[in-house]
Amino acid sequence: MHTTFGKFIASVCVVAGLVSHAAADTWGPAFSLGPTKGAVIGTTTTFIPGTPPAEAETGLYLWIGISNGTSGLIQAGVDQDADNSYCGASATEWCLSASYFGIGGQFDGPYVAVSGSTEIGIAYTLSGQTWTQTVTVAGKVVSTLTSEDGPLIEGGWGTGTECQQNCKGTASVQQYLNSVIYLSEPDENFPNTLGVGAGVVHTPMETTDGGQTWTIASITLPVYTAPPGNDN
Ligand SMILES: *[C@@H]1O[C@H](CO)[C@@H](O)[C@H](O)[C@H]1NC(C)=O
Fold it and tell me: Which residues form the signal peptide (predicted)?
């Protein structure tokens, strides 16, 4: 399975927009929001990861994350390691799963192999203290996972393009379509917390309920080339 060191750092990056300086761990341009003044209480999106790099290297991890400064990181998405046999992926496919990093380490839901053009449905829903990740392909649930962080007070929402060890970057743009972010209370200032990396293209954030529910029709992340020195 994939390594986990970078995913821990990612929980800070999502909220604070910080850049990791850890060796051999780099990040592609991101779209990140937060903190909200209330809490993040849910999200849905459709993720199209794009064609994976032709030469698989450990490791490339693409995900949509929510967290706050003290919670774990809810981060369903796709992985490519040098050996993708753990999910049955061919060289042109990704390994897809629900995933969570928190106290106790990395936890993953069941893995499935998907092609880069797959429209992946991702939903994070909250009931009491329990978050449920539901990952779907063509309307069928392929991976789920629960975790116990409760409402993500002063939480954030962001894309992760995480490149560890010998990773050279991505080979395709990534798309997030019809993203919806549910907040516990209206936050008209939420768009002002947006951080957008170089080359990231997106439609405006929209709300029809005074800032409690935000939608972003389209986010496109550019192809990312890891800088020299990333053990590549
Ligand atoms: C994150 O959310 C949890 C759960 O609701 C809350 O207990 C904690 O105080 C929040 N952390 C921050 C830094 O706001």
Answer: 1-24
Is 27 a domain residue? yes
Write out the chain's pLDDT in tens, 232 residues.
343 434 333 444 444 444 444 446 899 999 999 999 999 999 999 999 999 999 999 999 999 999 999 999 999 999 999 999 999 999 899 999 999 999 999 999 999 999 999 999 999 999 999 999 999 999 999 999 999 999 999 999 999 999 999 999 999 999 999 999 999 999 999 999 999 999 999 999 999 999 999 999 999 999 999 998 777 6
pTM over 0.85: yes
Nearest atom in ligand 1 to 151's CA: 5
Q: How crowded is residue 130: how many other Cβ atoms within 10 Å of its Cβ? A: 12
Contact indicator for 198, 3 with CB cutoff of 8 Å: no
- Ligand 1 atom nearest the C-alpha of 70 is 11
* Binding pocket residue ranges, ligand 1, CB within 6 Å: 68-71, 149-154
> What is the number of structural domains in the chain?
1
Looking at the domain assignment, is residue 122 inside a domain?
yes
Residue 161 lies in a domain: yes
